[in-house]
Amino acid sequence: MTLKELNFFYKLSDNPQVTQVAQELNISQSAISIAIKSLEKKLNEQLFDRVGKKLVLNERGRFFKDTTYPHYLAIKDAQTIFQKDKLAGHMKIAASKTISNYIMPDIYYDFLSLYSDVKFDIETINSTKILEKILDSKLDIGLIETDYTHINILREKLYEDELIIVTSDKNYPKESYIDTIEKKWILREVGSGTREVFINKLGKHANSLNIFMELHGFEEIKKILIDNKDCVTAISKVAVEKELKSKQLFEIKLKNFEFKREFYLIFHKDKQKNLLFQTFIEYLKDKLN
């Protein structure tokens, strides 16, 4: 087997569209087909089901990928091991929306600026979906807002955050009890780390909330709050720094609750900790500490 054949195989295992993979690799579709047929011949096994113009990974192909991919990454690392300043690889990362929108953009940019042969596939999804993808080995790294444990997931604390209550009503009392806030609550969707931390901390007091709307993004929530003084939300402090400074939004300090939380880095316990993986995690920790 050649590294080129294996590279084509792993690319197609993630994207069954031969045309798209050929365009990404800047080669012909026939070159990919020939390489895959060669690989299958050497293994004496068909790895893909031919469905129209797609090559769909079958059960034997999935087994082959799960078994060989860690070793393939190790070999790829070995190609650059003697080049001290060279790092190469393709990493799949997903972060929950607070982390993705307000913490990670500059970190992604700066890291990729340092290492031109590194590529990131970046997703912004809620913490629940990130956990599912980590368990299915569809992500290398997840960055989440919930305190979650699972036998197959390893986690590390990254950053301390605080949820605060905000409104655009500058005349509203600056301190209040949660049960006495008589405004419409605009919250993140079920499954988001922000909502989970907020509701879990409130306990039975959550029943007193008048939840008027549920949205997927903080920007939409902030716009509604700014335009409607009768609304309120619980939101990460880092997500409203500009609005607080410009006095578009105002914090309502709660007398009976405090919403401190940790952001976590998670990965599958069987994840191959190759050179790129370790370097990025060290860089991330350095930036957030």
UniProtKB/TrEMBL annotation:
This is Transcriptional regulator, LysR family. SUPFAM superfamilies: Periplasmic binding protein-like II, Winged helix' DNA-binding domain. Gene3D superfamilies: 3.40.190.290, Winged helix-like DNA-binding domain superfamily/Winged helix DNA-binding domain. It comes from the Bacteria. The keyword Transcription applies. Belongs to the LysR transcriptional regulatory family. GO terms for molecular function: DNA-binding transcription factor activity; transcription cis-regulatory region binding. Residues 1-58 form the HTH lysR-type domain. Keywords: DNA-binding, Transcription, Transcription regulation. Pfam families: HTH_1, LysR_substrate.
